[in-house]
Structures are given as structure tokens and as C-alpha cells.
């Protein structure tokens, strides 16, 4: 057994790296040995920043000469990434300098064309429009203005935008979470009292078993693959649950491949197995779980045979999985985003968390849960309320906003994201067409700009300073590396300028993100110790919260008092709204569910690829586009044979909502009866390898009680051409 990886050792390492990092950090310093002997003002500078894309939040060191960024490389002092960055993040230089980038604001003309306008005019147009809505609707204006939010370039942009909405009283900002992992974060919040990971990634080195539950770490968080490698070297058993073989499969000791959307049954069966074999401490379980007495009854139907029939695993495999869990003293479960992408996801997630609680795997070393997002650091609401007064209004979710748009009840929509992130994106597009004023902040001509009346060119991360946050609950700081081209404006500036025009009395006149950040640390207690000085020095940021400047970071288990962080210190086995384990059923629209549609026998999964970031940006970069294979549709050899399809056949992939074209890729990486296709392609990129009808256009508008869903629906494939 590996000896316990000491937290002290980890902290020491972190501090050493931090000290090393500080030598190059702080103010810009000239780099050595570059072989140039330019004038003093042309000296090369090295500045620090972080990648604006995924939640790993890789920090980097960038070289700048003559005001231009010449290179970006992962920060070697980053304890979470080990100095790595993935190709998506590195494509930022190409994206910044892309010839396809739109760098001036544009207004839609009556004939459908665009007219270039100045930044000042764009800001004035938006502010006038907001004042008009206020004049016409008074207090009701609040429900006529809404916003979709991206994973912003920095937190200050996000806060600035929230405040702009508040100038008309609106709180209707749609976070990406609704189409991301909010089922997982809500279940964790409800059951253990924190809406994100309960440990940091390094804790997996202290576990005996690591379960990657739909967590395709190697493709989705490449810099974390090294943690899996290290864990394996230390003898941690890595078990991967994914219907698909991926790059992560190579890093694991074993993989189980349940049919898509059936993990919940497997997890409820695990709870049953633990209870029926007595492999738990009853006194402790009763202490931690409210409703413990009903649990056995709730999962009694989920016998090994039943679970095997549902998941498509053999009874021996199901038992093997359960016995691995029962034999493990310390288990960490890493929840993949895909668990949140099925209408039955919340029940499965509840069962996984209960399974961890029963085996006493939530509190203490080598135990806990990791997720595929960072959780939201507190303080935004406090901060915004400080200027605009306390908000008591409930927020719409996107499902309601979509209805409101369709009924002509929304006058202004700030579209700061793709609309293709929501299922039934064609329906979303139709709803958008009913909004008289859509403002899109973006970078390229996309489906979103086609839907907009005003286009505001935004800046890429390195073109402005600001703070961000990541998976390890770490906040990071980025310096501005270079000026943005043309009239591109960072979102914090655009929203500040609009907000100041609409409501100069209340909207704070902050100068830049640094100014806002400093005010934030003064106002929000949990951020008091997260001083900008400390943040700037650190090579990988600071783990929140820090209530004072001399407090050390907390990188261990979040349950420091030995109890859960829910108000009662306990978790509920069942929930009034989210249901109980006995509610588990196939996901909506699945060929196996009661409400399935005839004629769509295959199960569809779609997902992300290593070299692409979400729906939009990297589709415009050749550096990553070169790895793209367009709209391929992976089918198992048996399924392909049954359908009479050959490798490379051109096919139509159809759900009951619609169809799109692709080509057949025959591979055992997918299960018989299922198919996989990538989620990133879009229709307007000039790069043919990334061009295609977006997958959300054929996904039904399904939601669970929390979020919208992307996977598991029935589909069919037929040959064309
Ligand atoms: N390369 C890349 N990495 C990213 C992103 C990106 O756009 N590109 N986005 C980031 C963001 S915002 C997020 S939220 C995360 C999360 O991203 P995820 O939502 O987790 O990513 P997916 O690729 O949709 O799914 C991950 C894996 O789940 C598997 N899967 C599908 N259905 C099931 C199922 O029923 N059961 C099980 N056990 N597994 C299933 C898929 O085969 C796939 O390998 O990724 C982050 N990382
Ligand atoms: N079918 C399908 N749909 C999915 C997923 C999937 O796997 N499959 N994954 C889901 C997940 S996990 C997520 S997180 C979402 C992500 O969905 P989105 O948030 O829509 O992701 P992107 O495509 O990255 O959106 C990029 C756009 O956001 C805007 N933007 C980016 N940064 C800024 C900024 O700083 N300021 C402003 N004003 N605008 C900015 C730009 O217009 C840019 O073009 O998609 C979800 N939707
Ligand atoms: S892993 Fe995530 S944060 Fe790191 S470079 Fe890639 S996209 Fe950026
Ligand atoms: Mo996401």
C-alpha cells in the first residue's frame, strides 16, 4: 500500500514553486539569453496569465516584444498542471490574430446587411434601448431584458454584465451551467453542502480506488492526465465507467461500459449491494443520512441481475464493480459532465453520493468527490447588491426565457454565448427571432451574429487583465499582454460603459478589473485574504476562501469539522422535488424508455473532442482544426453490418427533431446499438474541416428538474448519396 501522500509535503512543494515563480513574476522583467540586443523599450517582457477556456485554468508565461505576444507556454510552477497546457489553450494566439476576426461594432440594416458603427455609438444605442424599455414598462422592464452568459474571459466581465442588467432591475442572466454540469453541482449542494469537488485533484494520490464515473479526464482535462499516471504509480486502482473507449481508457486499470444513461441503475444497485452485504457502519450511516430506514426499500428492486439487464453489463461485471467498491478503504469518485446530460441524471447522482456516504467515503483523507467544474465562488451577489440594493426577485431559467422570447415578451437579449448550446437549437433560433433587439458579443461571424441586431467585438483573454476561477477552487490573475485590435472591447468595459450611461447614480465607476477586484476584496469577507498582491505572486492562483491575508490556503477535504456542510450536517436520502432512488428509470426519449418514439432504435451520445473548445471558438483555428474529422458518426461493427453500412458511407443521422449529414466511422470504441458524434462543429466557420450542422439542432428540448439534456435519445442512421 502506498504511504499516505502528506498534505504538508504538498503545501511545502506549493510554497517552493511559489517562491521560484515569484522570481520571474511580479512586474515585467526582461528575459535572458534571447540573443537580441534591442533598445531598452524593446526588451522582451514575460507576463503571467491564465487560459480563458476550461476549468483547469492553466496559468501561462507569455513573452511580449514590441507590444506583441510572441509566445505562450504553460507556467512551470503550476502545481495543478505541472506546467502543461493543451492545444485548445495554445490556439489562443492564432485566434487573437485571426484574419476572420471581427474587430469593429456593427449594426444590422433593414435589408439584412451590416453597417459598421463606432464603439461609442454602439454603447449609446444599447443604453438608449434600455432606457426606452424602462420608460415603456416601468418596474416590469426587469422581466423584459435578459442575458445568456458564457464562460467569461474574466470574473470582472461577468460582474460588470450582471450590474448592467440590474440597471433596469433584471436578474435574468442564464449561466452556462444550465447546459453544463448543474445537475451534479445541485445534487452535491443539496446533499453535502458544497456545489463542487469536496477535495482537490491531488487527493486522488491518497485514495485506494479512484472511480472515473463518465469522467473522460484525458480528453477533457489533458493536464490532469499526469495525476492519473501518478496515482497509478502509487497503486491506486483506477476504474473507468464510460460506454465509449477514449484516451482515458489507457490510463485506467479497468473499464466498465454501461449502456448510455444507465449509470443510475448501476449506482442504486451499488447502494443495495452495500446494504445487503453489510459492508458499512450502521451507526455512522444513521448519523450521516436522514431517511436511512427507507433506503433499503428504495433500492430493493435493483438486484445484480436487474442491473445487468438494464446496463448491458454481465452479472459478473456488475458484481466485480460492487466488490471493488466494497473492498476499497478509501474511494474518490470523479463525476463526469455526462452524468448531468441525461433526464434521469439527478437520481443517478444522488445514488452515487449516497454510495460514498454509506462506505464512509466522503470525509477524510483519500475520500471524496471531484467534479467537472469549479463551483461558483461566493460574493458576486453581495457585491452587486451593495450597489443596487438587495434583490428579492426570482431568476428565470432558460426554459422560461425561451418561452418568454417566443411569446414576444423579451425586448432586449444580450447573447453572450452560443445559442447552439441549448438542445433543439433550431427552436431556440426561432424564439430568438421574436426578440426585437439581440446584442451579440463575439469574435467571429457565427450563427449567433446572424441572429443579432448589434455585434460587439469582444477581446480575447490576453488582451485585457482580470481574474478567473477554476476546478481546484483556485482564483487566478491575468495581466494584459497586448492591445486588442480595432475597436474590440473587453466585456467589463462594454458593460460598464452601458451601465454608467443608463444609471450613473448606482453603477460603480470602476476603472478596470484591478480596481473592481480591489473593491471586491474590501467588500466580500471570504475574499479579504485573496489580495491582488498575493494572487499576482502565485504561479497557480489561490484557493478560496481566504478571510485574511496571512491565512494559509485550504487544499484538503472541505469538511474540516468532520461533518457535512449542509445546515443539519446530514444528507437527505430523498428529496421532495428531486425524488428518491426508487424513481430511477431510463432517460426520456431513450429507445428503452416508455415514451420512446418508434423508428429510432439507436442511442445517441455526442460529446467533446480533445482539440476543441465548446461550440464556437476553436472552430476558427487551423492549429486545432487540423485534427478534426468533420461530422463523423461512430458505429460498432455489428450495428454497421446490421444497417448495411461501410466505413466512410455518407449517412443521414436523424432523431424525431431533425437530421444532419455525416460519414460512418466503424469502431469498437462504441457499444453495439449506440453511436457517438462530436459536439463542436458549426455552420459558419471558413475552415471546412470544422464546418457542419450543429448537433443541438437534432437534440430534443428535454430538461430534468434542473438543467437541459444532450444525450441518450433514440436516433437512426440511413445511407444517402
Ligand atoms: N476538449 C475539451 N475539453 C473540455 C471542454 C471542451 O469543450 N473541450 N469543455 C469543458 C467543460 S465546460 C465541461 S463541463 C467538461 C465536461 O465535459 P463532459 O460533459 O463530461 O464531456 P462529454 O464529452 O460530453 O462526455 C464525457 C464522457 O462521458 C461519456 N458518456 C456519455 N454517456 C455516458 C453515460 O451514460 N455514462 C457514462 N458513464 N459515461 C457516458 C462519453 O462517452 C464521454 O467520453 O469538459 C471540459 N473540458
Ligand atoms: N450539444 C451539446 N451542447 C452543449 C454541450 C455538449 O456537449 N453538447 N456542452 C455544454 C457545456 S458543458 C457548456 S459549458 C456550454 C458552453 O456553451 P457556450 O457558453 O455557448 O460556449 P461557446 O461556444 O464557447 O460560446 C462562445 C461564445 O461566447 C461568447 N463569449 C465568450 N467569451 C466571452 C466574453 O468574455 N464576453 C462576452 N461578452 N462574450 C463571450 C462569444 O460570443 C463566443 O463566441 O455548452 C453546452 N452545450
Ligand atoms: S486544459 Fe483547459 S485551461 Fe488548460 S490550456 Fe487547455 S483549455 Fe486551457
Ligand atoms: Mo461545461
TrEMBL record:
Superkingdom, natural source: Bacteria
CDD domains found in the cross-reference section: Molybdopterin-Binding
Statement: the UniProt record of this protein carries the keyword Oxidoreductase: yes
Keyword Oxidoreductase in record: yes
A GO molecular function held by the record: molybdopterin cofactor binding
Family matches, as SMART domains: Molybdop_Fe4S4
Span of domain 4Fe-4S Mo/W bis-MGD-type: 44-100
PANTHER family linked: ASSIMILATORY NITRATE REDUCTASE CATALYTIC SUBUNIT (PTHR43742:SF2), TRIMETHYLAMINE-N-OXIDE REDUCTASE (PTHR43742)
Family recorded in the similarity comment: Belongs to the prokaryotic molybdopterin-containing oxidoreductase family.
Protein name: Molybdopterin-dependent oxidoreductase
Record organism: Candidatus Bilophila faecipullorum
